[in-house]
Amino acid sequence: MKAKVHVTLKNGVLDPQGKAIEHTLHSLGFEGLNQARQGKFIELELAETDPDKAHAQVDEMCKKLLANTVIENYTIDIEG
């Protein structure tokens, strides 16, 4: 089973890397960009075959290591 985790900064948290991306895209001539935010994408291969158990396992991984829940949000997609 495959799990895909997207980790992003919570709204209101400063994102210097996102600002750098935004600035560079503007300097390259890309207009109409209001904001850029950067995050992390993590893909995991799991031995678990039950989607609910896999989701619970990855949720625990996010809380303990993959995301800083004080300043970051995360979403989990489980693929069978």
Structural notes for this entry:
The protein has 80 residues and is of the alpha+beta class. It has a single domain, classed as Mth169, Chain: A (2-Layer Sandwich), CATH 3.30.1280.10. Helix content is 35%, strand content 29%. The protein has 2 helices and 3 strands. A 3-stranded antiparallel β-sheet has the order 2-1-3, with helices on one face. The longest helix has 16 residues. It is elongated and about 45 Å long. The N and C termini lie close together (5 Å).
Key features of this structure:
Mth169, Chain: A, three-stranded antiparallel sheet, elongated, 35% helix, alpha+beta
Number of structural units classed as domains? 1
The CATH H-level homologous superfamily: Phosphoribosylformylglycinamidine synthase subunit PurS
Report the total helices. 2
Kindly report the spatial arrangement of strands forming the biggest sheet.
2-1-3
Overall 3D shape: elongated
**Class by alpha and beta content:** alpha+beta
- Per CATH, the architecture is 2-Layer Sandwich
Arithmetic mean pLDDT: 97
* Main beta sheet strand tally, sense and closure: 3 strands, antiparallel
Secondary structure tally: strands? 3
CATH class type: Alpha Beta
> Which ranges are low-confidence, i.e. pLDDT below 50, for 5 or more consecutive residues?
none
Oligomeric state: single chain
